[in-house]
Amino acid sequence: MKFLHTSDWHLGRQFHNVSLLDDQKAILEQIIEYLASSPVDALVIAGDIYDRSVPPTAAIELMNQFVRRVCGELAVPIILIPGNHDGAERLGFGSEQMKNAGLHILSNFSDMLTPVELDTDVGKVRFYGMPYNDPELVRHHFKQPVATHDEAHQLLCRTIVETFESDAKNVLLCHCFVDGAIESESERPLSIGGSDRVSHEHFTPFDYVALGHLHQPQKKGEDYIRYSGSLMKYSFSEQHQKKGMTLVEMDEAGFHTATHIDLIAPHEMRIIEGELDEIIAQGKTDPKSHDYLLVRLMDKHAILNPMEKLRAVYPNVLHLEKPGMLIGVEQQMSAAKLARSEVDMFRDFFCEAQDSELSDAQEKAITDIVKQLSEQ
Amino acid sequence: MKFLHTSDWHLGRQFHNVSLLDDQKAILEQIIEYLASSPVDALVIAGDIYDRSVPPTAAIELMNQFVRRVCGELAVPIILIPGNHDGAERLGFGSEQMKNAGLHILSNFSDMLTPVELDTDVGKVRFYGMPYNDPELVRHHFKQPVATHDEAHQLLCRTIVETFESDAKNVLLCHCFVDGAIESESERPLSIGGSDRVSHEHFTPFDYVALGHLHQPQKKGEDYIRYSGSLMKYSFSEQHQKKGMTLVEMDEAGFHTATHIDLIAPHEMRIIEGELDEIIAQGKTDPKSHDYLLVRLMDKHAILNPMEKLRAVYPNVLHLEKPGMLIGVEQQMSAAKLARSEVDMFRDFFCEAQDSELSDAQEKAITDIVKQLSEQ
Fold this sequence. Notes:
Chains A, B: InterPro entries: Calcineurin-like_PHP (IPR004843), DNA_Repair-Maintenance_Comp (IPR050535), Metallo-depent_PP-like (IPR029052), Mre11_N (IPR041796), SbcD (IPR004593), SbcD_C (IPR026843). Chains A, B: Belongs to the SbcD family. Chains A, B: It comes from Vibrio galatheae. Chains A, B: Heterodimer of SbcC and SbcD. Two copies of one chain form a homodimer. By secondary structure, chain A is an alpha/beta fold. Chain A folds into three domains: 2-262, Purple Acid Phosphatase, chain A, domain 2; 267-333, Double Stranded RNA Binding Domain (2-Layer Sandwich); 340-376. Chain A has helices at 21-37, 57-73, 88-91, 95-98, 109-112, 135-142, 149-161, 276-283, 306-313, 335-338, 342-354, 360-375, and strands at residues 2-6, 14-15, 18-19, 42-45, 78-80, 103-105, 116-120, 123-130, 169-175, 177-178, 197-198, 208-212, 218-220, 222-227, 244-251, 254-262, 269-274, 292-297, 317-321. In chain A, helix 1 packs parallel to helix 2 (57-73) and helix 11 packs across helix 12. Chain A is elongated. The model of chain A is unreliable at 327-332 (pLDDT under 50). The A-B interface holds A 54, 57, 60-61, 63-64, 67-68, 71-72, 87, 89-90, 92-94, 96-98, 100-103 and B 54, 57, 60-61, 63-64, 67-68, 71-72, 87, 89-90, 92-94, 96-98, 100-103.
């Protein structure tokens, strides 16, 4: 028995004003190819299908095509829960009508207690989906004194465990922040000040826990309590994370193995550091020059139109930092010493604009002008 | 063979800042009761399910509950098309997955040519859904020189008719403005200047045409080309329209009868005309004092806080007009004669506020003050 665990698709996300929809489409294509060549019993999405509760129409269409091909053509059931970015009621429309066609959207507490049951070669496997919820919702629905995310998840897990059947294996889909797990910059906090943390211990009664919310693939506490990580990188801080999905294998005893399957984005998201000239030189032969880039220019002098120059070789530079132009604290230089004079700035500008140095006469002329102006 | 034809639900609509969702819910309840006691082969909604392309969550939930009860509990198939108020792609999510559960959302040209086929006691009946579309969309999709709504519908009807099968009866769902039909104030124009009109003659090859868009129930051209009208009144101009649904009966020969079935809104929408005192007196014993009202005050003098006074007996006065305070053109009186002086206005105000007339001394005092002020 095998299934694929994914999460945090964020379909429709923009990154520095660039739509990632084409990249997301290419990655979904990889998932479809995988499913076509390596059949599994189910595909699981642990929340944040879309990037916001009212997603753009194009994102809905992309998801619709994916569902048609996976549930329809490949006959692989999809089981999903809304995350904190999704609108649960909006996503849940028609879920009752879709489930017989293999699309299982578990979007409320009633769905949570009605697991999707699959008959597999290792017997009955039940998938419980705990839609994303904050403590307030849980307190209100269950009329229990629940104040924190941790207490909410404890209560919800206990409520689910009461419905376990002795002959079935149990998988949980859950969108939350497990205490001690590693954050990335692209997650939207669930609450302020760390009160969103949930102990992994509530999850130990399950055979496998398919987590969503954190964008880095990781396990927490037990081998069978895992984040698959997001579909692709959604911040430069994730440049070294390997994105993909988790192939989970179960045997008669329950959880067997979890294997990371790479998903490769058409554009990598990475950070390049160096001086302008060396970056441009390297860009001319860089086979991955279309990647989404954050460039950190280390040059110490002012540069005219650096973005334009960089984009001539790296068209998708999305963000530019100039730490070389800032006063380095570690350098312990006095501000006075570092401050660049008007003449220095003009010299940099001239050099950039004319591609040649100021002659002595020119330097004298500009110095005189600056002097006159400052004395006025 | 019978089916119910409805249209223009506009779930989530606001009327003069009042949400109509509770009224809509009560009316949907009447549809469910009807279906439970008088089984039909299908329920048809000819567009404008929601009031806008991104409907409020509560409207989606209401629709979801309705679908669950009708398709699920009562096992009556629902066949619907998006109207000009709906977002076709948004509404169409998961339609592939829903159809086997009896919810048929026909939201694009491919769906249009894939009719919903029902086996009934009079043989095969095929329901074609033509989602709302403007000429630009049709021109683009079919690569045909289509400039007007009329040409677009002619092309679409011809395209559908080519797929007819000789042994089936054909029903069309269509959201458009049939030439010569009667408008109401609550429809959003499809285009400016009458170019949105479509000839009913394109529709004659069908056995029945379930139209949506116009809010008044009516037939156009043939007995079998009909608007069911909207779910409820959405403007005061519709106060005398009987809202409801159309029960269509087919026999071996095709269309048999169309019968209007009333749907009763909890709050009527009506206009009351008269002087304030008589309206208030009547309101005290009016059994339908909670209706949504437009009040036309015919009083000729200024009135203090008329809305407050009216709402003491008619809590849902939503709009107030004061034609009695306007200059009647037909009266042919000179503006000078009609203009009310400051003293006249004060006299009205005093009378309203104190519930007594000005004494002669008081009238003299105010006249003197006004005179002094006007001479300053």
